[in-house]
């Protein structure tokens, strides 16, 4: 025992240490836990496809095609921040293979085009990736990078008649049976973007690296994922690595911004193993081998890149999308592509703003406050143990939670309101820092002790937002845990609505 601790304090700390719940199976890393909390951020698809009206860049135009007339990355970042988004991920290199940063790995980069040369001649930067990173920092949002593993420019199966005989006619090294090492090229490109620096020389922190698994070619290329992972971990240890099924985050199984009601944050395969089908990725694997939560990538328009013929989705459609992914414990990555001016279209930003107003109007009506009386069927270490008491679900602290003893996997808590309220939504959070445990729960609304069922759920996880089909009156709310694979840890309970009397 340390000499400066009294016996009473030492005993108290010992008891706390003994009753603290142990982690259950897989748990999120610190970078994954921070990523969960971002919830809603932007994809920025921008490159030669913007100007050729393509999605995959099969035309293989020269860099001169990249010609934004009024590039403004500050406009991107400010518009996204104003819309309540927490970050943006830019396509530094899409499938077409043209690099948007000043790379030494290829001649096929925007820096070799007329637009970039004119900017540099006028003392302006033409490195779009660095410009976007600086704008994200300026407006207080996170920055991430998409770097396509498939590279049409280096794929021998993809024709390139526009580039024959030019400086862009580079060796076709994509594929296991080609002369050359594409993995080495990709590793060098990856190293450049993860070592990206601001003008002041400090490193740009990346919150996510998006390594798309899509390919429209029959060419077989075995990627050296272990090498790529080491480059990311060494240079950007706080960055989440996204892939079809990991390492850190997985595809949700569709590109439409929704998932099914049951969603587990774990799966049991790595990115080197046979790919799960879309339906399997939506659900995940309960008690899987790896903490690999889902991210829903979706589009504000029909395509990923800007096309003049398309219109943005309505605020109602975006709200439905939000509820069917963020409301089901899945992060939303919403694509908002700049147009040929190099700015996000005003109509897109207007839809994002209207969506924010609708979202805020729905979410900013909390009814439950820390001063309310909360009771529970049992409390870890005894009913008087405030460390794990049921009142913790109302304190808005991500480090506290209600817990029962280890041998208890079912139980309930009741929140007693200070009047009768009209409730139309319930938000629940599990304390996922110690694992995902809950597999079945109910929520009941009561008036003077008479309860009615309003929610019947399965998985819980990071956050569930239940929008009730009809509002109910209540002065009591009861959460019942029907099934959990370890003692449940409930971090937060919130109800939305208005006071009646």
UniProtKB/TrEMBL annotation:
One of its GO terms (molecular function) is alpha-L-fucosidase activity. Keywords: Glycosidase, Hydrolase, Signal. InterPro entries: FA58C, Galactose-bd-like_sf, GH, Glyco_hydro_29, Glyco_hydro_29_N. Its EC number is 3.2.1.51. Residues 355-498 form the F5/8 type C domain. PROSITE patterns: FA58C_3. Residues 1-17 form the signal peptide. Pfam families: Alpha_L_fucos, F5_F8_type_C. It comes from the Eukaryota. GO terms for biological process: fucose metabolic process; glycoside catabolic process. Belongs to the glycosyl hydrolase 29 family. This is alpha-L-fucosidase. It comes from Paraphaeosphaeria sporulosa.
């Amino acid at each position: 025992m340390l000499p400066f601790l009294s016996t009473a304090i030492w005993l108290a700390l010992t008891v706390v240490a003994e009753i603290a719940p142990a982690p259950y199976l897989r748990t999120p890393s610190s970078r994954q836990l921070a990523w969960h909390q971002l919830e809603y951020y932007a994809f920025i698809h921008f490159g030669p496809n913007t100007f050729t009206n393509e999605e995959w860049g099969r035309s293989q135009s020269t860099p001169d095609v990249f010609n934004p007339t009024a590039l403004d990355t500050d406009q991107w970042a400010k518009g996204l921040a104003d819309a309540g988004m927490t970050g943006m991920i830019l396509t530094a290199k899409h499938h077409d293979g043209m690099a948007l940063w000043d790379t030494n790995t290829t001649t096929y980069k925007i820096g070799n085009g007329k637009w970039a040369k004119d900017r540099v001649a006028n003392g302006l930067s033409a490195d779009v990736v660095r410009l976007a990173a600086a704008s994200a920092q300026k407006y207080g949002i996170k920055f991430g990078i998409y770097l396509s593993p498939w590279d049409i420019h280096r794929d021998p199966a993809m024709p390139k008649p526009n580039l024959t005989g030019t400086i862009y006619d580079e060796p076709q090294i994509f594929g296991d049976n080609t002369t050359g090492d594409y993995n080495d090229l990709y590793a060098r490109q990856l190293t450049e973007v993860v070592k990206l620096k601001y003008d002041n020389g400090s490193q740009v922190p990346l919150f996510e690296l998006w390594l798309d698994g899509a390919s429209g070619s029959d060419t077989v290329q075995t990627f050296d994922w272990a090498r790529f992972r080491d480059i990311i971990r060494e240079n950007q240890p706080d960055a989440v690595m996204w892939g079809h099924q990991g390492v850190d985050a997985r595809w949700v199984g569709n590109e439409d911004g929704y998932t099914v009601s049951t969603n587990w944050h774990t799966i049991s395969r790595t990115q080197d193993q046979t790919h799960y089908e879309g339906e399997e990725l939506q659900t995940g694997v309960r008690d899987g081998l790896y903490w690999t939560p889902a991210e829903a990538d979706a589009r504000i328009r029909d395509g990923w890149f800007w096309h003049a013929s398309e219109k943005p989705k309505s605020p109602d459609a975006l709200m439905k999308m939000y509820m069917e992914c963020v409301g089901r414990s899945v992060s939303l990555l919403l694509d908002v592509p700049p147009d040929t001016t190099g700015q996000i279209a005003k109509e897109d930003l207007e839809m994002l703003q209207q969506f924010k107003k609708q979202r805020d109007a729905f979410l900013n009506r909390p009814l439950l406050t820390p001063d309310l009386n909360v009771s529970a069927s049992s409390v870890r270490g005894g009913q008087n143990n405030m460390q794990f008491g049921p009142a913790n679900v109302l304190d808005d602290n991500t480090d506290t939670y209600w817990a029962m003893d280890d041998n208890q996997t079912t139980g309930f808590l009741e929140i007693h309101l200070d009047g009768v309220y009209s409730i139309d939504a319930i938000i629940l959070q599990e304390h996922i820092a110690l694992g995902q445990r809950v597999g079945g729960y109910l929520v009941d609304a009561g008036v003077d002790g008479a309860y009615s069922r309003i929610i019947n759920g399965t998985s819980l996880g990071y956050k569930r937002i239940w929008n009730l089909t009809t509002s109910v009156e209540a002065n009591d709310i009861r959460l019942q845990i029907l099934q959990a694979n370890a003692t449940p840890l409930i971090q937060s309970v919130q109800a939305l609505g208005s006071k009646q009397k």
